[in-house]
Amino acid sequence: MDGQHDGPRREEIPAAISAQTEEFARRLATADPSRLAEAALATVGSLHALIAALRPTGEEFRIAIDFITEVGHYADSRRQEWVLLADVLGVSSLIEDQNSARPRGATPNTVAGPFYRADVPETALGASISRDGKGEPLAVTGRVAGLDGQPLAGAIVEVWQANAEGLYENQEPDLQPEFNLRGRFRTDPQGRFHFLSVKPKGYMLPADGPVGRLMAMLGISLERPAHIHFRITANGFETLTTHVFDRSDPAIGRDAIFGVKPELMAEFRALPLNGGRRRHALDLNLVLCPERQGESAHAGRK
Ligand SMILES: [Fe+2]
C-alpha cells in the first residue's frame, strides 16, 4: 500500500502478498464477520499467493479463463464437469474425509458418486442383483457390526456397482434391465447379509470434456479401479457410504477420485471353475460407528 488509503494497520493483515491482497482485506473489513467473508478473504489471499508464485503471463491468464469457461459449458442437469474437476483434483475426497472422519476401527466413508439410486426395492437375502446374468458370477457375503463388535441386525444394506463392462445401469438404460446390479437387503439377526452378483470392471471418468483434456495433458489417469458401492443404514448409527475395491485391479494405486483407502481394499477370491466358468467370492466386514450427539441419521451422506 502506498499510504493513501485508510485501511487496517499492516500488522492486522497476516501474510499480505500484495497491495491488492491488503486492499481486498480492507474492503472486507467493513462487512459483518461471516463465513462468506472469511472464505472470500482466504480464497483471494491464496489466489494472490498463487499468482505471486507462478507469475502468469496475460496469455496464460486468458487460457485459464477459457478453461473455466469451457468447464461451465459442460455442466448442466445431465453432466457436472465442475464436480468432475473437484473429483480429479482430490477436492471432493478431501472434503468428504474432513466431514466424515470415523474413529479407528470404523469402515471409512467415501463419496457416493453419481450413480446411486435410492428407489431400489428390497430383496430377500441370497437373491441375485444381476438381472441380465451377464458376467462372471460373484458371491458376496458380509457382516455389519458396531465399533464394539456387536452385530447389527436389521441394518439396511444398499449396493450398486458397474457391470462386467464397467458401466452402470443408469448409464445405459436401454441396454441394461432396470435396477441391474443394484440391491437393497436387510441383515439377519447375526448382522449378516449375502447376495449374488457379477464381478465388476473398473471404468474411466468422462474424457471428452475440458477436465479429461486437462488430465491428458498432465498425464494423469482417469481410471477407477473395480469396486462395489455400499450404503449401510442402521438405527442409532452413522450411515456408512463407502466403496469396496478389488485389490488386484492394476489401477488400485491411481484411483482418479482418490477413493481408495487401505481398509477398503478387498480380495475378490477366485473360486474353482464351475463347468469352465470363472467364479469369485467376496467377504466383507463393515463397521459402523454410533451416531454422535447432535448429528442426524444422514451424517456421512453426500
Ligand atoms: Fe462407482
TrEMBL record:
<dbReference type="InterPro" id="IPR000627">
    <property type="entry name" value="Intradiol_dOase_C"/>
</dbReference>
<keyword id="KW-0408">Iron</keyword>
<dbReference type="Pfam" id="PF04444">
    <property type="entry name" value="Dioxygenase_N"/>
</dbReference>
<dbReference type="Pfam" id="PF00775">
    <property type="entry name" value="Dioxygenase_C"/>
</dbReference>
<feature type="domain" description="Intradiol ring-cleavage dioxygenases">
    <location>
        <begin position="140"/>
        <end position="168"/>
    </location>
</feature>
<keyword id="KW-0479">Metal-binding</keyword>
<dbReference type="GO" id="GO:0009712">
    <property type="term" value="P:catechol-containing compound metabolic process"/>
</dbReference>
<comment type="similarity">
    <text>Belongs to the intradiol ring-cleavage dioxygenase family.</text>
</comment>
<dbReference type="InterPro" id="IPR015889">
    <property type="entry name" value="Intradiol_dOase_core"/>
</dbReference>
<dbReference type="InterPro" id="IPR050770">
    <property type="entry name" value="Intradiol_RC_Dioxygenase"/>
</dbReference>
<dbReference type="GO" id="GO:0018576">
    <property type="term" value="F:catechol 1,2-dioxygenase activity"/>
</dbReference>
<dbReference type="InterPro" id="IPR007535">
    <property type="entry name" value="Catechol_dOase_N"/>
</dbReference>
<protein>
    <submittedName>
        <fullName>Protocatechuate 3,4-dioxygenase beta subunit</fullName>
    </submittedName>
</protein>
<dbReference type="GO" id="GO:0008199">
    <property type="term" value="F:ferric iron binding"/>
</dbReference>
<keyword id="KW-0223">Dioxygenase</keyword>
<keyword id="KW-0560">Oxidoreductase</keyword>
